[in-house]
Design the sequence.
């Protein structure tokens, strides 16, 4: 049935995938940068406001810490080679569905590279489709400057969530990032803190 | 043998480092606590500016924020952050009122154990009124011209958040000059107070939401 297919790249033209094609996300790839954001996380009616800190701490390793304004830690997660470790998490967020969602969101957010299965384009975007565990990640690159504009995470039939990057600086830092979920009430908004 | 020498060297070195900090005797502790308590009772209002540093080991730089703090006895507090963004929190009538760059919300403290503990802790540490608390095991030191109180939470909720809270007091004012909240991991938040004025009237509007 036509209506069941994911509509992410409807009306896009297909293009040939070249051997050297790869999805790339440069926004958390510099280990010299402390990525520090004001973060608003809304989860099932609860809102957490604080500071989200992301840091590349090794070749394939990231640390993500979310703290309140007063310095207490909401969660502290570590990602390495696609695996994750929970260093700490507060009771209100320590529910399987929330934690799994956060882990899935952040793994995709920090993932630097991946292979390309399909490739599409229209006037505004080049889209590279990466497939992993029966799911697809569609990377939308602006035609104008080739910067990564958004990532859509979808199953074969349904878009699950998307990550939007705005206001990218010269050193490849996205000043505004939004993660929107379609089926569950979880939204994340990040705004880079000025030095 | 080498290990022993190394250990004693380390030990001497560590005690050498801490030499400026001298633990108060029981009678000095008693006097100090009384002075803090007197000062706290006389402080009906406190206005401070503050600079807050969040230290996380894996970061290259500490995260700095700053703003103004208003305290009204016995337990109304407003933290008004102006940098790096506008954000204020008022603790009043067992509620937490948040103004996040114009977006207002409130949290009932009674329904939120963590915030209740945090509020209590902050109110008490700002006016120095936490030193008789049964919730902490405490030790006291003098370091040059400041008194230092080191508090280890006994309460389970608080213990999960902070392994130790270090309060510094001016040796003349007996008011809190800094608060260091140390997490179980060793990461910490250090808040330094400046430009303190005591018993200056605070307009009600400051605490309005």
Sequence:
């Amino acid at each position: 049935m036509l209506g069941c297919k994911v509509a992410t790249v409807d009306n896009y033209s297909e293009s040939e995938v070249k051997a050297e094609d790869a999805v790339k996300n440069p926004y958390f790839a510099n280990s010299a940068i402390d990525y520090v954001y004001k973060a608003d996380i809304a989860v099932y009616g609860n809102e957490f406001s604080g500071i989200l800190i992301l840091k590349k701490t090794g070749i394939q390793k990231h640390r993500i810490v979310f703290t309140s304004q007063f310095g207490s830690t909401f969660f502290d997660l570590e990602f390495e080679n696609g695996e994750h470790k929970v260093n700490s998490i507060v009771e209100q967020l320590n529910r399987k569905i929330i934690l799994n969602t956060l882990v899935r969101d952040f793994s995709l957010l920090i993932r630097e590279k991946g292979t390309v299965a399909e490739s599409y384009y229209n006037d505004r975007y080049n889209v590279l489709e990466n497939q992993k565990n029966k799911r697809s990640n569609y990377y939308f690159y602006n035609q104008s400057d080739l910067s990564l504009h958004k990532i859509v995470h979808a199953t074969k039939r349904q878009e699950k969530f998307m990550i939007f990057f705005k206001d990218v600086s010269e050193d490849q830092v996205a000043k505004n990032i939004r993660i929107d979920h379609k089926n569950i009430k979880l939204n994340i908004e990040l705004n880079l803190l000025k030095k | 043998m080498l290990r022993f020498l190394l250990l004693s060297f380390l030990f001497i070195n560590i005690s050498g480092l801490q030499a400026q900090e001298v633990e108060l005797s029981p009678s000095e502790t008693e006097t100090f606590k009384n002075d803090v308590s007197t000062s706290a009772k006389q402080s009906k209002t406190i206005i401070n500016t503050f600079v807050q540093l969040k230290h996380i080991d894996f970061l290259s730089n500490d995260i700095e924020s700053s703003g103004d703090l208003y305290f009204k006895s016995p337990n109304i507090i407003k933290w008004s952050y102006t940098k790096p963004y506008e954000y204020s929190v008022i603790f009043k009538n067992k509620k937490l009122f948040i103004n996040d760059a114009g977006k207002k919300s409130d949290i009932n403290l009674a329904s939120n154990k963590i915030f209740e503990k945090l509020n209590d802790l902050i109110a008490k540490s700002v006016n120095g009124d936490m030193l008789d608390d049964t919730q902490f095991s405490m030790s006291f030191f003098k370091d040059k011209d400041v008194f230092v109180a080191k508090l280890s939470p006994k309460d389970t909720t608080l213990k999960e958040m902070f392994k130790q809270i270090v309060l510094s007091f001016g040796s003349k004012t007996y008011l809190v000059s800094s608060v260091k909240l140390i997490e179980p991991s060793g990461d910490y938040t250090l808040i330094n107070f400046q430009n303190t004025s005591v018993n200056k009237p605070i307009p009600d509007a400051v605490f309005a939401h």
